[in-house]
Amino acid sequence: MKGLVHCSFCAEEIYEGQEGLRLLGRYICERCEKMIVDSTVEDKSYFLLKEKMKSIWFAW
Ligand SMILES: [Zn+2]
Question: I want to staple 12 with a disulfide (CB 3.0 to 4.6 A). Which of 7, 34, 35, 57 is the partner?
């Protein structure tokens, strides 16, 4: 049975190794993964996303 983990971005429950992405020991759900992948430097949300990532990374 797979362990249940929480997305580091939106705290959504995901099954370990089954959905989403594991990044630096954190889990990211498919939705947030897509959001990250779809972002580009030109994207207005890029900076906000980066800042959010930073705050999450350092908050742990
Ligand atoms: Zn998520």
Answer: 7
